[in-house]
Design a protein that fits this description.
By secondary structure, the chain is an alpha+beta fold. It is built from nine helices and 21 strands. It has helices at residues 37-45, 93-100, 105-111, 127-140, 157-174, 185-191, 209-214, 219-224, 314-320; strands at residues 4-11, 16-23, 26-30, 52-57, 60-64, 69-70, 78-81, 145-149, 178-182, 194-199, 202-207, 228-235, 242-246, 251-254, 260-266, 272-274, 285-297, 300-305, 308-313, 327-332, 338-341. The strands form four sheets. Strands 7-8-9-3-10-11 form a six-stranded mixed sheet, sandwiched between helices. A five-stranded antiparallel sheet has the order 2-1-4-5-6, with helices on one face. Helix 2 packs parallel to helix 4. The longest helix is centred in the middle third of the chain and has 18 residues, at 157-174. The protein is globular and about 70 Å long. The model has no long low-confidence stretch (mean pLDDT 92).
Length: 344
Amino acid sequence: MALLSLRFALPLREFRLELALELDGVLALVGPSGAGKSSVLSVIAGIIRPPSGRVALDDEVWLDSERGIHLSPDRRRVGLVFQEYALFPHMTVRQNVAYGGRAKVDELMERLRISQLGAARPGQLSGGERQRVALARALAREPGVLLLDEPLASLDSHTKAAVRAELAALLPALGLPTLIVTHDYEDAVAVADRVGVLVDGRLRQLGSPEELITAPADAFVASFTGANVLRGHAVRRPDQLTEVRLESGDSIHSSDELDGAVDVVIHPWDITLSRERPPIGAAPNQIRGEISALTRIGGRVRVAIGPLTAELSAAGARALALAPGELACASFTPQLTRLIARGV
């Protein structure tokens, strides 16, 4: 697989976007709206020219500010799928795909299961079908790099699940360096083997989805992956667990060894719920509180209790007869209670 390397600095309205990456697989850049994610795609595609930087695909140099090189978008081997797909409404599906390149139209339409839609126009297609057409058009250029801008953002939840699965199977099989930008962490981990968290033009952390969950670089990364983040003050005790006094007044323990102001990271799926407090020996960390909300997501239920959100199966929630306004106890182990020094 080819290697895409990029290093650039780009002043934006509210901050300076600075990024250095090497990409030879499927990478997702995730972050809040306005973090600079789409600008990264525009720099790679040649739509935006940064004042300083370098972008190259193996030995093909597309941008080198020191050497005065800046290839126009049509001279870069880039396949770009826009957020709203940008299909031509007056063209048929076949004509849209052929606009990218005619050599492999039939092959791509077959591979992406849109052959039967060849005579249809974009306005007659579902969101998932429009995305497959846009992807086929991008691949028809026979690109060296594939870029996808919020590919799942405009899909309903049912369609999104199906398209996620399709992309997860398709993208690695293409053998192209692929960069996806999204604000949805679940979308990112579903389709990418590496995830970078971009905030205000800076890459906070880059790693596998597992690394971001088990060892987040900071509280923002932890919260973005769906973790509970609580503030507290840690006291490390020799030959004992670290004690943390939370801002809520609760006292918990962690196997991490830190002193001072900390952010406490607890994932919802690592929390056990019960109606009564379990024995301390069975669950050293306990927070009891009122259930403020229950949210069902597929076969899982998210339960907001005090400062925490726990996640359990729908059957488990029914068995406990959980309901808003009722008291319950959230328990979790010190080994699954991560600490991050505040301000890191």
